[in-house]
From TrEMBL:
The enzyme's E.C. designation: 2.7.13.3
Pfam families noted in UniProt: HATPase_c (PF02518), HisKA_3 (PF07730)
Classification lineage: Bacteria, Pseudomonadati, Bacteroidota, Flavobacteriia, Flavobacteriales
Signal sequence interval, chain numbering: 1-18
Protein name (Swiss-Prot/TrEMBL): histidine kinase
Transcription recorded as keyword: no
Amino acid sequence: MKRLLVLLSLFLFFKLQSQQIIPLNEKSYIDSLQSITKGNFPDTSKATASFLLSNYYRNSDSVLSKKYLANGKILARSNPFFSAKYYYYEGQYNLDRNKRKAGISYQQAIKSLSEFKSEESDFFQALAWYSYGVSQKDKEGYIPLVKIMLEKSIPLVEKYKNSRNLGFLYTQLAVILTYNAQFKKAEDYNNKALKILEKQYPESAELFFTYLNSANNFCYQANGDEAEKFLHKAEKLIRPYPESSSNAFYYYSKTLFYITRQKNEEALPVIEKGIFYAKKFNQNLLAQMFYFNKYDILKKLKRYKEAKTTLEDVLTEKSLAIDLNNRKTFYKQLSLLNEETGNTREALLWEQKYSKLNDSLNTENVKLEINKLESKFNAAEKERKIATLNAEKNQKDLEVNKKNSYLWGMGLVLLLALSLLAFLYVIFRKNKKINEQKIEDIKQKEELSLTKAILDGEERERERIARDLHDGLGGMLAGVKINFSTWSSTHLHPEKDQEFYKILGQLDNSVSELRHVARNLMPESLLNFGLETAMHDLCEFYSRKNLEIDFQAIDISKTLPLNIQLNIYRIVQELLANAIKHAEASSILLQCSQSGKNFLITIEDNGKGFDKNIENTTKSMGLRNLKNRVNYLKGIMEIHSDDQGTAINIELNIHGE
């Protein structure tokens, strides 16, 4: 149990420090960054502020984080160095969502940043290398990560002797070493960090976390006296900033200190303070760690009922229980708690869950061991066979040498014949490939022509129906309504003939609805004012009391051909309709931007998500029609959907029609 608490605690600090540390005066820092993004500052300053805000919100508000990341990319596009930095922040955004994508972004950042020679470039390369190692940790373990830190990250920054960034990387390495029980080496690297930070940056967040890392390192060695010294130093730094999210980590280290000193009663109010800060700043994993420590202390104090409720809540929340080894431990603890309180039936149920999961994990471990043994056996067998073959080869070499003279002549003849055949085959393959490409091009042109004909016909029919409804039927109904109004004013009494006036009101509503349908079929604002205004109107139309739609338009040209504007409008209309009808979202972000011949559409919602293969399993035409319009404009579409919401990115070629 104690070992599990140690590993979980260290894992928590490791997770925190795989990102850049936020200054302790957090509110002032965030307000300053937001002011820069909205103020009259150079694009490079706005790009930096947007990247930092994206990194700040990446775990607490994914929609806002993605928005700042996209804005930063646009602002950085004219500056090669800031465009290179973008790839690092793109990796940060994906680190806890998709480690494979994050790893690709970090490698791209390293490659792009290596073209610039400056301290800032070296530091971002060092960060990218470190974060790349973190993204590969689950596959490769901690040894490659330590190697990356020692051979890649730290050497890039070590040449800047008293750099704040060097102190930061030293204490990062110390966290990893503590996690792997290398306490003395961790202490050495923490001391290296302290030597730089205490002298050069005495008020920094890097120094604050180095104090906490040092305190934790001594707590895990049961050296409470040394741990207390560093906790006092950390407290002096954080005390002026009661609104900082870093308070949660201070209280967590203080909890570990009280546990080390076995002051369980004193630890409980500290845990409650930590839970307050962790919940306030959406630090879910940290909050669950506080609850798990609370459970352990309540159990030691024999407050079994409270301990049981606390542990069940940790298991339900799943931040910690997603790891199978953690879950197995929770099952065992719940079994022991119920046995302790005399609830043998429930104790048996938890013991059965524990045994089942334990057997499953043991089976996997046995498989791994068998695979290792098989690999060793196969390697030894291959070496034996190679040795035998080498002996036979040496024997036959003597015989082969005698025949070489004859074979050389035959070989030259065969070589010429094979060269001729290879040449003819290459020509055949080339011609075949050219013909296949021509056929594929013809097929694509035919498909595009068919799609164009269908979409053009559809728009013409929409226009005809809209015109007939608006000018024909709409005009007739409006005339009837006017005639009725004129006649009633001279023949009817408003109070005595209320039923008639009620019917007249229904007729008026019908005329309004008819005109609304006509405008939906062929939006007048698109024809009169252009695409951007039409999309603004569309978002206002779909907005509800319980639904907020944030529309952002960037560099949309007013000279786009009308048929392209219509297709983009229909794509956005379909995206919004799908999000509103199916996602049950309360917030939608729609961003449209134009860059040269490319038109980009991004829509994100916080709804319930959907199965991306739904078009293959239902008769719904929504996604199919959407893809037809995207293909018509030679575009590409990416869909990311889970139970946290849906994000759709579309890139259209607006000059490729």
